[in-house]
Amino acid sequence: MLSLFLVLVTVITTSAIAALPVSATSRTVQEALNWCASLVGKWYDYDKKNGPQCVDLIYGYYNYLGVTPVGGNGIDYASNALPAGWQRIQGAAPQPGDILVYTNGTNGHVAIYGSSSVIYHIRPSYSNYVLAESTAYNLFPQYWGVIRPNFASSSTPSASVLTITGMNYPIHKQSGQPLEIFGLLSSPYLITCGEAIVYDMNRNVKFHIGTYAENGRYTFNLNEFDKNMKFASLPDGQYIYFVQALDEKGYYAFYETNFTVGSGATTQGSVDKIVGDHNCDSSNSWNAGVVKKAATCAYTGEKVYTCTVCSKTKTEVIPKTAHTYGEWHVVRDATINEEGLSCRVCSVCEASETKTLPKLAHTHSFTGGEEIVTPASCTAEGSKKVYCSNPDCTEYELVIIPKTGHTDHWKVIKEATCTDEGTRSNECSVCGKVLGTEKIAKKGHDYKVSVVPPTETEQGYTLHKCKVCGDEYKDNYTAPIDENAVKITVESKKAFAGKTVLVNVILENNPGIWGMDLAVSYDRTKLMLNSVTNGDVFADSEWTKGNLSAESYILSYEANGFENVSGSGVLATLEFTVNDEAQAEDFYEISVSYRSGDIIDAAFAEISPAVVQGGVQVIDVLYGDLNGDDIVNKKDSLLMKMYLADNTTQINEAAADVFPDGAINKKDSLYLKQYLAGLDVELGA
After folding, report:
1. What pairing do the DSSP bridges indicate for beta strands 487-490 and 610-612?
2. pTM, whole model, 2 decimals?
3. Strand ranges (DSSP E) for 201-335?
4. Tens of pLDDT along 247-293?
5. ∠ CA(275), CA(277), CA(280), 5° rounding?
6. Of the residues 40, 89, 531, 650, which has the maximum number of CB atoms within 10 A of its CB?
7. How many C-beta atoms surround the C-beta of residue 1 within 10 A?
8. CA torsion through residues 668, 669, 670, 673, sign
């Protein structure tokens, strides 16, 4: 029988079906099943195309339930559109009125579930009539699941059922003899219809007696059908006899059996009672049930109940039992920042249950680290998080940061010069707001001092020339000096700030001197006299050392006897240290002076030499000192040559520009050689 189910189902489209509104059905389950039973044995081609197909019954079913039919093959009902409120449940145990969906083959199949032993469907390759087959729904191949309409609720009749009793039927029947079947249909309700059908073994209808309907009868003799079956004969072979009926409450009963036409004695079979469809729940006909699988804490159990009337079974789920938990164990300790966690485990299934442990309590001290939330600005307050000093705590309090106020930043608008005022503005360095403007005092001149010694024809003088604007003036004029006149000269030297420098005091054109006192004066805030060394003029005479800490240092000489000292040369060498704060280009004068009678010869005659003052010029570059040893000599000349040959020799390039034109080239090499040869050149000038 199952092999006959593998049939070709023609696709029927909804375009051939009148559209119905999609809505919940107002039909009850029993009304739906009555409708199905009323079609059994009938030719049913809903869309009038391709003859009866399994989907024709479903289209009519949708229409009967008041919803728009949905087209497609049987297999499509596993995924096509559902009417509002209906359900599609894969693998479900069906309930009466459910649409059964099968996905076998290319096209699948659909049917309507009547009960545990009846399904309604059309099988075109087997019969073009609506069938009510007495078979379990899952005996057909590839059962997918159900579509469940949202039926209206209904009251179900009591335990009364439609039955077929005392039935006798032929096992064998000789050819040409009438078919005789005896039995009684009975119900406490009015029997509304019944019929009998003879099929061959391929389920082709040989005789269809039709539907019997006579309201007002509670019993019906099956022989009423037999008297209508006065056909001449059936060919020898096996046949199927099928009988069914329906009462006014929708209870349904059916029976089918095989019989043989051919030679042999006529024998009879019998059945005492055939029970029709009934409501096991409302009739309270379930037994106490049998536990098939005991429930545990991990799995639900199963209990199977059997109807004492129709032997139908139902399975109920036994809820899981409670877990058998052990003691609580701490999985994670609570801290002041985080909750802890404890756990216990079921001794049966090892399921676990957890619970949180409250944070540890402690007193906050908000004196720990800080985190800026909103920086304070010049005009607005900010805020910051101040954390608890406990390193394990992440709590904090929000603290207001006072506004910072503006931050002065002076910007020069117009530079002051030696003779004119400038202007500057005060702009906040944070927000840029202009806070005010003011005048910048004129700088005044920054004079560079240099001593120009007298010549035979020109006065000597001190030249003051502004290093910024070039303004200059002269003072401290000295008279021209005859080249043969007695002269005392203080050397002018150059030195770096913080360095020592040797300055010679020189006597020229000595006419013969017996004794001499010279006062050496200098700026003690800029120069410090470290030592005095006697020169060669009075090297063999008496020299009295002066006080280095005195305001003026006295160079005091006397001849050893009563004869004049007549030689010229260095009277003394003075060693000074230039103050660290001295500025480059500054000139610090060193002068010598004498009073009347301080310089005499052996005849008591006063000698009045001309004096040329000198001093120390502070420099930041010693021109010509290429190797930085504070001496300009042949080493520096050699380094100049090497540098010009490959430009990779390391030198002080600022000191190498002795011919100051901003470049180091052959001009500098020639100028340095001239200086080392004693020519009258000044390096860097």
Report:
1. parallel
2. 0.37
3. 205-212, 219-221, 237-247, 252-261, 267-275, 290-293, 301-306, 313-318, 329-332
4. 666 666 666 677 676 655 445 555 444 445 556 665 566 888 888 88
5. 95
6. 40
7. 12
8. positive
